[in-house]
Amino acid sequence: MAVPPPDPKFDLRGICAEVNCLHFSCKAQVPCLPLLFSGASSGLIHAWNLNTRRVESALDGHLGKSILWLHTLHDRDLLLSQGRDQQVHTWNLAEGRNEVIESISLECVGFCKCSLLKTSCCLLALPTGESAKIDVLDLHSKKRVSSVIPNSDSRWGMAMCMKLWEPESGSSPLLLVGYEDGSVVLWNVLEHKFLSRLVCHKEPVMSLDFDSEKARGASGSSEKILSVWSLDEQQNLKAYTTQEIINPGVADVVLRQDRKILATAGWDHRVRIFGWKKMKPLAVLQYHSATVHCVSFSDHANPTDRLVAAGSKDQRISLWSIY
């Protein structure tokens, strides 16, 4: 008999708006508290204390526009937030401060989320006012180091999602972009160069993630499938396999940091967990009463304290221990 899926370890409520994005920050040394940052459709960012399960602070700087993406820097003293107000803010959270210290204007009205690469210098990939163009900035100097632009005869549509990463060889950073036409495209960032393209879906690519160790990635769309694809030594994207799901609509695809499991956020209110090695379905987590917009894995050093969080249109965040 199959083991029934677990119930949430706990949930977080009181946001009074749809939860669009989540980001854990648990690595910091004691006595720092394990935090979960959430971004809402109301424009508010909440920092949740995972010990008390209450809001530590609420940040309001995006003019009431939806928060699309969050990421911490420097052991969470700095927080990056991207909003539908076409701004990326840098927040100073050190010593209890909650202030915007820098802003970058995007001039972009789409839903494409930024992507951050932490190397010797922090690189930030940004959607732009030109629907298919992506800029990459050095986050410290704010100087643009690259722009990737499809040819004028390419009919790929808008950039929908992206992942900035660095090969183990230490060569130029690479950028994977999912486009409106259902294709995933690989770019060489520093050479501004198109490398390869694979049509993975019949509908726009809603989300993707990539495992640089296994040279394999996964993407979701409004269809009833997860597409898994690989990257060969010549940097050509190739179809690997597809995983069918019962109901259409994958809003988010995220690999756990140890690259052992993958989670998806579903339009059917469910979170699905897969073994990454063979894409074996492991669990279907049912709790939410509306679309699940986002999933995130905690980065806690202790495996027994690791969680997966899901944020939903039903204004709740569920946290699950599935380890």
How would you summarize this macromolecular structure in one to three sentences?
The chain has strands spanning 10-12, 19-25, 35-40, 44-49, 54-60, 67-73, 78-83, 87-92, 99-105, 115-118, 122-127, 134-138, 144-148, 159-165, 174-179, 183-188, 193-199, 207-211, 216-220, 225-231, 237-244, 250-255, 261-266, 270-275, 280-286, 292-297, 308-312, 317-320. The protein is mainly beta and 323 residues long. The mean pLDDT is 92.
Description:
- With 323 residues, this protein is an all-beta fold.
- Helices cover 0% and strands 51% of the residues.
- It is built from no helices and 28 strands.
- The strands form 7 sheets. A 4-stranded antiparallel beta sheet has the order 1-28-27-26, with no helix packed on it. It has a 4-stranded antiparallel beta sheet with strand order 2-3-4-5, with no helix packed on it.
- The chain is globular and about 50 Å long.
- 44% of the residues are buried.
- The model has no long low-confidence stretch (mean pLDDT 92).
Which key terms come to mind for this protein?
four-stranded antiparallel sheet, 323 residues, mainly beta
Proportion in helices: under 10%
Structural class: mainly beta
Mean pLDDT: 92
Total count of helical runs of at least 4 residues: 0
**Biggest sheet: strands, sense, closure?**
4 strands, antiparallel
Low-confidence stretches: none
Which term fits the overall shape? Answer: globular
Topology:
Layout: E1 10-12, E2 19-25, E3 35-40, E4 44-49, E5 54-60, E6 67-73, E7 78-83, E8 87-92, E9 99-105, E10 115-118, E11 122-127, E12 134-138, E13 144-148, E14 159-165, E15 174-179, E16 183-188, E17 193-199, E18 207-211, E19 216-220, E20 225-231, E21 237-244, E22 250-255, E23 261-266, E24 270-275, E25 280-286, E26 292-297, E27 308-312, E28 317-320
Antiparallel strand pairs: 1-28, 2-3, 3-4, 4-5, 6-7, 7-8, 8-9, 10-11, 11-12, 12-13, 14-15, 15-16, 16-17, 18-19, 19-20, 20-21, 22-23, 23-24, 24-25, 26-27, 27-28
